[in-house]
Structure formats: C-alpha cells, structure tokens
Fold:
Amino acid sequence: MKKSISIPSIKNYRIDSVESLRRLREILVAGEQTTGKFVNVCCGSGCISSGSEHVREAFVSGIKGHELEDEIKVKKTGCHGFCERGPIVVVGPKNIFYQHVTKEDVPEIISETLLEDRVVERLLYEDPVTGQKCLHENDIPFYRKQKRIVLKNCGLIDPTSIEDYIKVDGFQALAKILSHMTPEEVIGEIKLSGLRGRGGAGFPTGIKWETARNASGEEKYIICNGDEGDPGAFMDRSVMEGDPYSVIEGMMIAGYAVGASQGIIYVRAEYPLAVHHLSTAIAQVTDLGLLGRNIMESGFDFEIKIVKGAGAFVCGEETALIASIEGKSGRPKPKPPFPAIQGLWGKPTVINNVETMANVSRIILNGHEWYSGIGTPTDKGTKIFSLVGKVRNVGLVEVEMGTTLREIIFDIGGGIQGGKRFKAVQTGGPSGGCIPEELLDLPVGYESLAKAGSIMGSGGMLVMDEDTCVVNIARYFLDFARNESCGQCTPCRLGTKQMFKILQDITRGKGRPGDIEILLELSDAVKHGSICGLGMTVPNPVLSTIRYFRKEYEEHILEGRCRALVCRSLIFYRIKDYRCKACLKCLQACPVDAIIGAKWQVHEIDQSKCIKCGTCMQVCPPRFSAVECVTGLIEGSGDKSE
Amino acid sequence: MADEGATVLTAAQDAGIYIPALCHCPDVSSQGVCRLCLVRIEGRRRPEPACRTIIEEGMVVFTDDPEIERLRRVILELILSDHDFNCLLCPKSGQCRLQELVNRIGFDEHRFSRLEHTAKDLPIDTSNPFFDFNPNKCVQCTICVRTCHEIAGIDAIDMAYRSDNLRVSTFANKPLKDSVCVSCGECMERCPVGALIPKKFKHPTREVKTTCPYCGVGCGLYLGIRGNTIVRARGDDESPVNHGGLCVRGRFGYDFVNSPDRLSLPLMRAYDEYAQPSSVVEMNEEGRPITLPLVKREGKFVEITWDQAIRYVASSLAHYKGDEIAAISSARCTNEENYLFQKFTRVALETNNIDHCARL
Ligand SMILES: Cc1cc2nc3c(=O)[nH]c(=O)nc-3n(C[C@H](O)[C@H](O)[C@H](O)COP(=O)(O)O)c2cc1C
Ligand code: SF4
Ligand code: SF4
Ligand code: SF4
Ligand code: FES
Structure:
C-alpha cells in the first residue's frame, strides 16, 4: 500500500498576494488526491448531542488499531441538516451516507466499508415511501429537491481547517475583488444578483451596502448578525459552526465594498460551538495574513471581532443589537436614522445576517447572472429553512426560492408524522403566520408569504398536524411575544399582554362573543403602532389563524369546543361503559383518584376531580379502548353537575 | 411657514393643530415611544410618530382620520388599562396629561371594559426626601430618564426590565435615596402624570418671580404662594441664567423661610463688651419682626441690633492687618457681594488670604 503524501503544514505560510493563495491551494489539492479514503463525522451541535464525538473517537482509535491513520483521514465536519438522523457519518471515497451511527457500529464500518469496500446496509437511510436504501446523500429524498449553495461546505469541510476551506475555492472571491474589482463594481454585482437580506426583512443587500458606502464618515463597520433568536431556528448556527470561513469572507467582501476596516460578528452566547469555530477561523485567517493590514498587498485592511449576545430575542433587531454591542440595554431605536447612515458608535454600519454573508462569496465567484438565474423573477437564490414540527424529516433544508410549501413539507420533509393530516405551517418564526392546506402550493418568497399573511422571517418552518389547536398556537406565540417585547412602545408592551389574556381566556373556555373583533383591533394597533419589526409582526399568528381558521375560534368561544382536543378546559375524558372490562388499570394509574369503580364494576370518571392528564386513556389496554377524549364545554360541565 | 428641521408635531402645534402626545417633552429629545402622536403621511406605508418625523417640503400630513383615531384610542385604552387611575386621590389631577388626552381623544368604553385592568401594586419609592415615585401611575413615557440624562446629566435612572415589567429604575433597583440621584427634581417637574410627585404638594394661589437666594448663580425662579406660605418653587423658563432649571436647593429648599426655628436677629455671645442687649423687637408695617442681631449672655445668645453687630465686627477687624487675618466668603452671596468682599479684604485688610467656601 502506498503511503500518502502528508499534507504540507501551512504554519508560517503567509498569503501576501493572489498568486501565493493560488499556490497554496494547488499544494493542498495535490496533497489531497492521493488520500482516497476518509471518514467524515458530523460534529454539528445536533449530531454532537446524539453522540458523534464518541463516534469520531472510535474511528480514530479503530483506524489507529489497524495502523491506517496515515491513509484514512478522520475529519469532523459541520451540520448536514438532517440532525434527526444523527450522528451522521460519510465514508469515502464513495461518499456512503450512514445515519444513526453509534460507536458500537464503528468497528463494522471500518472492517466492512473501509477495508473491504462493502456497504453496511442497516446504517443506510431507507426511503419510507419506496422502502429503498439510499447509498448517497443525494439519493435521499430529503436532499434531492434541495439546492445547497450556502450550505455547500457544511458537512464537507472540517470547520476548523482553513486548508479544507482553501481547497474548496476558499478566499477566491476575495482574491477576485481585491485584484480585479473596484468597491463600486462589487456593489454593482451584488445589486444585480438580486440578493436580499436573509435576516427577515429581505432588504436588498446591494442597496444597503451602497447607502453605507455613500454615507459620510471615515470609520465604518460591518456587523454580521448571528443572534438567531427564533425558537426552533438553527440555520445560522449551522453555517457558523459548519462553514465559518464563508461568513468571514463575506464580511471581508462587504468591508471592501463599503470602505469599512472593522467587522463584528454578534453571536448569541448559547452557541458556544459557533463561537469556538468562528474564533478559531478568525485566528487562522489572521495568521495566514488574510485578515489584518494591507491584505494581499491591496491596501485593504480588515479585522474581525466576536461579540457574544446575552440572548434576548429582540437583540436580533439591528438597532437593538447595536445598542447591545455599545453596552446599552438592548432596545430598538426608531428608524430613521438607519444603521447604514448612523449605526454602531454613530458610524455608518452595514448589518447583515449570517446567511446573507455566506451568499456573498458564491455570488462574486460565479457572477450575478448565475445567481439571479436561481429562484423566481422577484426572489433570487436559495433560502435555508429550519423544518420542524410534525413533519417526518426534521432538519435544515436549503431550497431554491419559489419552491412550493408542498414540495418542502411533503417531498423533502416526507409528509406528516404518523400518517396524520396536515393542518397548517407557520413560516418565519414566532411572528410568522399560519398557512393552511389550501395554500400549500404557494411558492416561497418574500412577497408571496407576506400576501398570505405570513413572513419569510429568518426561515423557521413549523409544520402542524390535525392534533394542533390553532388558537392554542396563537396563544403560545403571543406568550412568547409579550415576554420578548422590549416594552418601550405602548401597543407592543400592553397590546400583546391583553391579546395574550384574551387568547388564554378562549383556550380556557372563557371566551366571549366579540373577542375576535377585539383581537383584530388590538392586532391592528400593535402592527401599525410599534417601532420595530417585533411589534409589527407579532400579531401575525393571531391574524392568520383568525383569517384561515376563524371557525375554530368560534367553536371555542361559542360552543366550548376544541376540535383538536388540546385545550384542557374544553375537553374531558370518559369511559365507555360498554367497552370497559373493569380491569382496574386506569383506576390505579389515575394520579388524583378520580376514577370510581371496582373489580367487576364498570369504571367511571369523576369529572369534578379529573385533571385531564389523559393517563387513563394511555393505560387503557388497546384491545378495550374504553377511554375516549371528547370536547364540548356544555357536555363537559353537564357531566360535572350530575 | 414652519421652521426647517421642525417636527410634524411642533409644526402642527405652532399652527394651532392638535396632535395628541404623551412621551413628547420639548426640553428633551424625542423618543417616540408612546405612539399616541401617530399621523398618516401621504406616500408612507405606515403611520409615523409626529414627534420624530421631520417636516419636508410638500409633505401632506393627516392628523386625523378614522383609522388614526381608532389607533390612538386603542393605545390610550391600553395605557389606561395599565394605570392606577384613582384620579380623586391623585395630586396631579387637573394637571395630568393623561386626563387631558382622555378628554381630547376619548375612548371606546365597550372595548375598554373588555381589557384586563390589572392593579400593579408596586411599592412606592418614598425614600427621596423631596419627592415620591409611584410606579403604579407611571406610563413609561421615559421623559424622566431623558431628563436625568440630558438635563441633569446624572443618569440616576433608566428604563429597566422588559415587556410589561418595563419600569423606571435606579441602578440595581435601589431606592432613589441610595442612588446617585441629586434630587434636582427636574424629572419630577416633567413627569406628565402623577408618578413623580413632590412630597408636600399644595396648589399655589399666586406666584412671585424672584431670584434663588442660595448661591451666586442666581437662578430665576417663581415662588408659588398660598396664603403667606411658599408652597412650591419652579424655575423661570425665561431666565437667561437657568432656562427653567433648578438644583435641589432652589427647588425644594424654601422651607426655612417660614420655619419657626429661623433666626430673626443677629446673635452675639454675652461676654463680649460690645454686646448691648436690645429688648425691643422692632416691627414692620405688616406686624412681622424686623430681623435683629442677638448676643449670648452668660453662655446664652442675646439679641442685638444690626448696627451693633456691624460696629462690633468693624472694630474687631481694625485690630488685624496682612498675614494676621484671612477671609472666607460664602457661596450663598452673589457674585457682586463676593467681588466686594475680596476687594475689601485686599484693599482694607491688606491681605490676599481670601478664599471661598465652595473650594473643595
Ligand atoms: C425582533 C427581531 C428579531 C430579529 N432577529 C434577527 C436575528 O436573530 N438574526 C438576524 O439576522 N436578523 C434578525 N432580525 C433582522 C435584523 O433586524 C436585520 O434586519 C437583519 O439582521 C439585517 O440583515 P439582512 O439584511 O442580511 O437580512 C430581527 C429583527 C427583529 C425585528
Ligand atoms: S415594537 Fe416591541 S420590541 Fe419593538 S421597540 Fe417597540 S416595544 Fe420594543
Ligand atoms: S431628581 Fe435629578 S438626579 Fe434625581 S433622578 Fe431626577 S433628574 Fe435625575
Ligand atoms: S415616572 Fe413619569 S416621566 Fe418617568 S416614565 Fe413614568 S410617567 Fe414618564
Ligand atoms: S409623543 Fe410621539 S410617540 Fe409619544
């Protein structure tokens, strides 16, 4: 067996020109070609939590045991997006995709796949529809309809290895602009590409840069917004963890275009791995001479710092984020002035989302025609969604703009779990609207989602099935909103509080006729009367559920019914006497002794004692299925009074 | 024609057009948080706060349309639902901006009755000797915070917490007395509602324009009088010296005027040969005592006349010259008095040993 050439150490290597970057890349690629076999273990936060660190250690020691450590490289990579199937391991040279790998599986993978070139069938992903085993990532339906531009390096490169990044064209976009493009040309390219901010509002990135470039002032700043406060969203985390270099390169290009020499990445402190990878990357890039003074002899200076955020949702809002960096309390400020004119320390500041920044190098490298060819006439490029909820394949998906919700949820997401019926999908995080089944063929885009009463937001996508009560969902998000409101605007501070109260009353069976109208009026005041995007959007879950599911609100209010059997005050459990076999199971399990009965005596629930925990229903043997859950306040209270 | 750079709110006010406003205070920058001053501006998607929107050539502003009116009412109802509106017991009643807003824009009683009205029941901060802070009345307009930052320059208070817990707080939520607050009362003066209220509050029946007696700055002030008693002091906005501002002494330190403990005559120690007791207390036309000096006899002070006092001081000073003597003047004197005193010290007493109590 031929020993591989060991990869040249890049210690002490300094890139001082476009030429030296090209040379380094060549050396690195040449070193790569002879090492055919590899093991890529996903070490994103998702896979780490399912034990991928142990899997990686097992590979390292197993391979050492076979004395193959020079030939087979074990690498940690960033997130593949399919965290639910983690830990994920990709084995080369054939890129076999193993899922749910445990450390016990490792010896088998080594001896079978790495030594004998045979596939370990049971670790492959099985298509639940066709029953077919999928050998490669791209065979899996979850990936087939995705278009991974931003995530292209995630799962491929070692996020702590700058060599890996350079091998996949890293810093080529930077080299291109520094050697061939003026700042104005860079801005022109971004403008033509049609890139819009991925942080929520979808503001055209090129125009934002141009504004900051033209704003007067010597000092300017580039801020990358990695606060990612939406519960359930983790696309920015995955990018920062899995491909920190792309974020850095994007920021540098922005810095060059705008005329800024300082960058700040604002990451929430709950993302320790992202902070770790970013700071490692910044140190490496600086050591290589790509950050600092006179980068590649172009006269362009740039440095990047990391600021950790304490985690308030509203601190993701740009002006609040800036206040937070300045050490003030994180409250949004009214705009104008916009940050591009007067931002951090009063200086012109471009603030862009992580995903926006990661798009930049791709656009510069491939040209605006390529980028604007992806997507729809109004929305260019791709968007990463964090697909969660009652969908089969939970994970991160990057799709072309204009992909329909149906394709995302059913083709990529694999449909609804447990064969249940789809009910609604909420897009855009806690202040997004709920979109019903009729609109499943809606293509995703900023305007199309807004028209449907929702938002693109940062890309949250929460799928709900028939067991979800939309009123309860609206209550849940209003609870989030009222707690996260910074409180300075009257309508947002007090309006969300009152809306929550009304929704809570409705879900508790205390709704009153007229509640819907008051909710609409309060929503209107919060939406139109607030300073920042939080207030402007938080009524969306309420407005959209009233718009599409008004009937369910009315059932709650007028009939005391919750058809999804979620709102506890509106449901009750009862035992069908003709099915009950008096087995004592539920009687013994009930935590509050609400069940009356005895051996040979059919059981019955004392409604005045019942706390509606549903234990009886769970423990009732399926062959009897004697316990049922029904809704209806009238019927329920009637039962109680008996 | 409105001034360039003016806001829609001030331009409207100058033109006599009413736009409701709660968190606006002309003395400090606008924050635009109450959202009551929202107006519709042609060509803009969203209603804009008049207090923060700069007027532009050809701008068309609608200060009132049914939609704006409803928006304002809902916001006002929300404020009321969060406010302890026991107006009968509130010292601010009659001068309260919230009452005025209710009168001017009104509210929908039906909708208001459907809102939850929660008593906040937060403790009242009575630690400051001059004014109380009642958070249950606070409407979170942040005027006090901006005042403390921009006018007092102290930053004793800020808005703390989030959501409907938002409230005015000192650092680490300590009582005002234990904060860096200097009790200037500027915030209290500007609070539009009854949240920051002077401890002793009586409405004056008339006002007298005067100059603060405390120090040489000479702030202009109006003393509010009720009967024969001073019940409040407020800065004279017109005074070029202080533009309406006052410090803790000028604003709150008027009690001594009517104090029974106040010295009404010069006092002198009795063992002094110059002391000639005067048993006569002279009265002025109003029957009030004319202040006279006092001397102390056998350990006690006895009253003497001003002439006697001055004569005593003059003859004592005659014994010393040059380095034998030093003079200290007072911050409570006017600049002119201080000037004269140093002149007297240098020329008559022939020494440069002159200093001032305000040197720290
Ligand atoms: C309440 C609120 C929370 C936000 N949170 C985030 C966030 O977590 N990450 C983010 O990138 N943008 C967030 N934004 C959007 C930012 O204000 C800003 O628009 C964005 O960072 C600009 O970058 P972009 O143009 O690249 O989208 C938030 C906005 C609001 C109103
Ligand atoms: S809308 Fe809400 S979160 Fe935004 S500034 Fe106003 S109170 Fe704060
Ligand atoms: S009294 Fe003066 S120093 Fe104290 S909080 Fe008010 S403005 Fe600030
Ligand atoms: S105390 Fe008065 S001035 Fe300060 S925020 Fe409350 S209402 Fe406004
Ligand atoms: S007066 Fe303009 S927002 Fe309060």
Q: What stands out?
A: Chain B has five domains: 8-113, 131-198, 207-258, 263-306, 320-360. Residues 131-198 of chain B form a domain with the Alpha-Beta Plaits fold (CATH 3.30.70.20).
